[in-house]
Amino acid sequence: MTRIPEQTIEEIREKTNIVDLIGEYIQLTKRGKNWVGLCPFHGEKTPSFSVSEEKQLFHCFGCGASGNAITFIMDLENRPFTDAVHELSKRIGIALDFIPQQGETGSNQQFKPMIEAHELAANFYRHILLNTVEGEEALAYLEKRGFDRTIIEQYGIGWALDDYQVLTSLLERKGYQLEEMEAAGLIVKRDDGTGYFDRFRGRVMFPLWDDNGNIIGFSGRLLEKLEHAPKYLNSPESPIFEKNKVLYNLHQARLNIRKTGKVILFEGFMDVISANKIGVQNTVALMGTALSESHLVKLKRIAKQLIICCDGDDAGWEAAKRFAQMAISENVDCQIALLPNGLDPDDYIQQFGEQSFKEQIIGKPYSYMSFMMAYAKRDKNLQYDNDVMQYVDEVMEELAKRPSPIERDLVIRQMEEETNVSEEALQQLLTKKVGRQVQEERKYATIPSSEASNEQMPIYTENRQRKQNATNRAEKMLLHYLLNDGELFDRIYVELFDLFYHEEYQTVFIELAAFYEQYKTPDYHRFAESIANPSLRKIVLEAAMYDSNEEFAAQEIEDCIHYLRKEKVKGQIDEKQHEQNEALRSNNHTRALELAREIIQLRQSLEAL
Ligand SMILES: [Zn+2]
């Protein structure tokens, strides 16, 4: 395994700003000295994830995750240390002389040839489109549809020749295993088993990327309709291309999504390109699949609000409804931008102009409930009582799932106006529906075990729990100072070697002794990285995250030491008392007396502390 020089790691650490890095994954807001957001490591609705720019560390008060830029990448993307360092070096433009080797670096590396082959194919297709006679027709076609050079470059668009062998031969010449290339979806095996041929022929090629900007598949579009051939041909599912995970354009839109706090979700990737042409850049698209939980988790991490924008035809309405319901069930705040008269985004922009698209469509999305009302109204004529009843019923069914009393009130008032059904009647129907839904939920609900055991927790354990927490706090605070102050460490090391109460803190303390022996100066980043055990590393980083105040530092240190020393003696007294009881029970009066004396001594020393 190649080692990365210590100096390089140092440089990467110095040049990477953790706030920018994490900000690319989740939405961060400044609060006081730190930045806060929703933790990417556990599901939560109120932010307990905190990033310190000053310390270049992050910490989650909800699940306890903590670390620095390098461990953030390691933990979030489940990548090994060298891989994470490599990723960060790419980000800040430092060239590393080493490339993570296959095998040593997780699943990503295992499929590296597949990704490289896709890069090669994309470059090849683009070269043909832009620089050859064979690409001229396709290029003219694209230009006519408003694809200029910038867009072609940005989206890596190319042209696949109408030829069965050209890519297959290229891949073979470059030394790729054709079997592997077939699994990656680039080529297809002949029925008679005599070899392989190109999957994409005579199509405009649009690369598809993963979240990191690696090309993992293609969508190929015919220039004109052909019989027995689909207009769009997508790569098949492969080890690198999983449709229910891919969000088209996420790697390019991430920064813009974070800036605006909003992400626009389209049905198809061509909509993303159309929107980008008019400068709307916080957009992603699905690759012909349902909106999955995995998609939503990703979007939730970086955006506060999801705007769903589907075509204005029947299929589009249905898709928008499915997406919106899925989003709501995953607690994602979503709105729906509606296109009129069966138009798709590109048609709309052609007809009504970009300003109108930005202001009237994207700028004025429907709330979830008003969309559901519009949806329910589509196939009804409110002149007929039957349709009115049906309409009221569908809307109340949906409204019963919405917990906000204000939203319920607003919708009921609007319904009253629209349908002339009285407020009381609407309210009654809603109450009935809420009741039924609660019953349904109860049927499936299970009582969480932790809640049940909490109720029965005896008072003394609670007290002990509280005391343990106080001890823990003191240990954490003291460790914080020890991480930053070598002299303090030396003092404690000599005078109070066994000060820490909890074994894991004591272990960290011993590790820290070894660290100071080797490096002399404090550096908690390096120290944390040197600890192999993740739970010990967490203790270190948590302590490093603690916000100390220069002014009170000396006092705080003394308080911690004092508290921990007292706790130590108290623990010893408890032990002796226990032993004394045992001695009395077995009639060993001499021993009991001896212990009584020792206890008195300990009590005296406790008072003297
Ligand atoms: Zn968390």
Q: Which stretches of 5+ consecutive residues score pLDDT under 50? A: 100-107, 445-462
Count of all domains:
5
Oligomer: single chain
Helix segment tally: 27
Structural class: alpha+beta
Biggest sheet details: 5 strands, antiparallel
- CATH architecture call of the largest domain: Orthogonal Bundle
Content of β-strand: 5-15%
Order of adjacent strands in the largest pleated sheet: 1-2-3-4-5
How many angstroms does the end-to-end distance come to? 53 Å
Radius of gyration: 32 Å
Quote the average pLDDT.
Answer: 87
Shape: globular
What is the total tally of β strands?
15
Ligand species: zinc ion
CATH topology of the largest domain: DNAb Helicase, Chain A
Helix content: 55-70%
Determine and state the CATH class of the largest domain: Mainly Alpha
SSE map:
Blueprint: H1 6-15, H2 18-23, E1 29-31, E2 34-37, E3 49-52, E4 57-60, E5 66-67, H3 69-76, H4 81-92, H5 106-110, H6 112-131, H7 136-144, H8 149-154, E6 158-160, H9 166-173, H10 178-183, E7 187-189, E8 196-198, E9 203-209, E10 215-221, E11 232-234, H11 250-260, E12 262-266, H12 269-277, E13 283-285, H13 293-302, E14 305-310, H14 314-329, E15 334-338, H15 345-362, H16 368-377, H17 385-399, H18 405-419, H19 423-444, H20 449-455, H21 459-484, H22 486-495, H23 503-519, H24 524-530, H25 534-545, H26 553-585, H27 589-608
Parallel strand pairs: 12-13, 12-14, 14-15
Antiparallel strand pairs: 1-2, 2-3, 3-4, 4-5, 6-9, 7-8, 9-10, 10-11
The structure holds zinc ion.
